[in-house]
DNA sequence: CGAATAGTGTCTTTAAGACACTATTCG
DNA sequence: CGAATAGTGTCTTAAAGACACTATTCG
């Protein structure tokens, strides 16, 4: 049976990523300054088109684009959601599949022509910047998802180096949630989750030496049955 | 600046919906029997291509396709996730954006040529059926999402008529979760959520008359801070 | 020693689970 | 009345919050 692929015009389809980290006590999102139209000169999310010959899935596209445009390989990556419409891109009806990612604080750089600059941008200064398309809204959605997940999972560990102290984890969680949590509650979760193991050595921290922890080999992110209270 | 839309071949992009209801004490999913290739004769999820001239967003596409193919207008609709790959559709690399929907138990019918038949199919019999593409996997993901949300929200009400009793709601939740819950816990949630209002009349139910409830005008789905236990 | 941070002990609070009890309807 | 289902009262339990207490390090 004949199938006419041109029966409908396909929408413009792209993959973008919202990559967060916590740095200097603030939640930062990775943005690139666009060197090409549309939105030349604006800040935008790193992303681009699927390479249908080589990308197995859109997950691969998201990772590939992050690496190409910013040299970052995320520690955590999941689909956020698709954003679509005819008014979000001047080129016509478009769909962007957005990924939500986390990484250890690190330096970033760009090596390709379509990107002028790459920066970690504090989510608090976003309102005052010139942001491409609907990327501002998208980042807000991603931030909400991160906050929600931080209430019932250990997802914030992916913003830390592979070894970290409870004090660092507490501080990252508090930055994400924008409110304090109980150290004791965090310790109880660390024990209950069985996701972590303590290292041999301890580390200086201004007072008593702190135990270092790392995520156990192959441990999955566990979800708790209750949220931290809001 | 020139932008070359053909720099990359766009993937094939479709929108599909997993529409559930609870009927005769079982979770059912709405499937259509495909009258056209690919997968002619198989059961598949209702969906299709975006009409980029007329659909404002992919949400509209999902609703439109459901209505065209099955005559159903869902009470609840949200994005599930996109599924992508070069091996899921014989026509090449494809992306399907999948929606997850709920509706009151109702009759369904088809009025278009590309659909031979429309049926509510018990999720328990899916393994033994011939299902198009990766739709079996997709339905499993959607079912997990439904089960997860039923643990911390009142989402199962959208499988009931606009007026319902606590007994009916309890039974729908138990069907979705595949385990019993405490009636008392459910009543506490109904009161705490402030999503519902009692109707004037009560209704027969084999014993004492039962209070009818309905979702308050404009009430949003509330999320509880704890799950029902597993 | 005192300041600072790490880590423990334990009481309170919240919301779910368990389950017995009362209430209402119908045959 | 008895069976069936609706709805309440209340004790127990699980896990978070609050917060005081001890432990260790450094200057």
From TrEMBL, chains A, B:
<dbReference type="InterPro" id="IPR054105">
    <property type="entry name" value="WHD_NrtR"/>
</dbReference>
<dbReference type="InterPro" id="IPR015797">
    <property type="entry name" value="NUDIX_hydrolase-like_dom_sf"/>
</dbReference>
<dbReference type="Pfam" id="PF00293">
    <property type="entry name" value="NUDIX"/>
</dbReference>
<dbReference type="InterPro" id="IPR036388">
    <property type="entry name" value="WH-like_DNA-bd_sf"/>
</dbReference>
<feature type="domain" description="Nudix hydrolase">
    <location>
        <begin position="11"/>
        <end position="143"/>
    </location>
</feature>
<dbReference type="Pfam" id="PF21906">
    <property type="entry name" value="WHD_NrtR"/>
</dbReference>
<keyword id="KW-0378">Hydrolase</keyword>
<protein>
    <submittedName>
        <fullName>NUDIX hydrolase</fullName>
    </submittedName>
</protein>
<dbReference type="InterPro" id="IPR036390">
    <property type="entry name" value="WH_DNA-bd_sf"/>
</dbReference>
<dbReference type="InterPro" id="IPR000086">
    <property type="entry name" value="NUDIX_hydrolase_dom"/>
</dbReference>
<dbReference type="GO" id="GO:0016787">
    <property type="term" value="F:hydrolase activity"/>
</dbReference>
